[in-house]
Amino acid sequence: METIRPSSDLRNHYSEISRQCHEDRTPVIITVNGHGDTAVLGLQDYYQMKSELELLRTLAEAENDVANGRMASMQDTFDGIRKALMERKDG
Mind spelling out the 3-state secondary structure of the chain? Predict the structure, then answer.
């Protein structure tokens, strides 16, 4: 569950907020004049959230491709993946 703290706590109690984000793995919402303004979370959680969002975008694009008949055979797909991985490895 997230915690809500005023913006002054970010300046005055940063190490406590950072520790909470990392240990509890929960975001801290920072308020300005009593209204939510910023979310603070640990870097690991940020990267995980970013990766999950990218995966969801990729899945949404794939669903759209299927719905619009843009599909390739499984063999062509795996061949393309292998080629891309080899180019990435060589490059």
Answer: CCEEEEHHHHHHCHHHHHHHHHHHCCCEEEEECCEEEEEECCHHHHHHHHHHHHHHHHHHHHHHHHHCCCCCCHHHHHHHHHHHHHHHHHC
